[in-house]
Amino acid sequence: MPEMLSLALLLFLVMDPFGNLVVVNSLLGKHTTPKRRQILLRESAIATVILLTTAWGGKWLLSALGLGQASLSISGGIVLFMIAIGMLFPSRRMIDDEIDDNPLIVPLAMPLIAGPSALSMVILFGEKHTGIDVYGAILLASAASAFILWASPWVFAFLGRRGANALERLIGMLLIMISVQMVIDGVSSYLNLPNP
Predict the structure, then answer these.
(1) pLDDT of the residue at 99
(2) What's the pLDDT score for residue 181?
(3) Residue 44 and residue 25: Cα distance in Å, rounded?
């Protein structure tokens, strides 16, 4: 159980629901609050299915493509680093500000909620941990993220734009450190060095 909670916390940080508050409220600003919540719950459910499917088929995919854990860790760290940079410097964000009236899958479920870094993370989890811990962590992190996004109008009103931006930057700094560690782990694994 502690292992599952630890994985869920890490995945929750990578999914970055607090950082997504600003983006979500901008993208869905013209919808009423009930409609916004309906869209967010649907997209969160789709993102959860995507993450669970990736965790289930990740090992097979890596094997089929001839990829090792080291390459996944390094590439995942690089993508996570780029996303974290976008959180620290919003002018470099990789999500468009305009979407359809009723978005389906793109860009909310993927790549906003289940982004490349989250997908890489669950594949790495599957390589190192038991299936129960991985699937449980995905469900816990997804449920917590979905709740925060569902309550985003209240949370956004409480934090305000400045508070949400400050929180996003704080999480961005944490993700930069996590991404650097992922790259270090990948290089250490490739070179068969002990992790620092």
Answers:
(1) 52
(2) 87
(3) 15
> Total domain count for the chain?
1
Residue closest to 120 by CA, chosen among 6, 10, 46, 18: 10
Closest CA to 119 of 50, 22, 181: 50
In a domain, 65, yes or no: yes
Residue 101 binned pLDDT confidence (cut-offs 50, 70, 90): low
Asked whether residue 7 carries a pLDDT value surpassing 90, the answer given is yes
Domain containing residue 167: 2-190
Q: Give the best-scoring range by mean pLDDT among 17-31, 35-49, 79-93, 171-185.
A: 35-49
Asked whether residue 169 is domain-assigned, the answer is yes
The residues, any chain, with a CB within 8 Å of residue 157's CB and separated by 6 or more, are none
| CB-based contacts of 49, cutoff 8 Å, min separation 6 | none
Backbone angles phi, psi at 161, to 5 degrees: -65, -40
Residue 98 has pLDDT above 60, yes or no: no
Residue at 68 is within a domain:
yes
DSSP letters of 10-53?
A: HHHHHH-HHHHHHHHHHHTTTS-HHHHHHHHHHHHHHHHHHHHH
Does residue 86 form part of some domain? Answer: yes
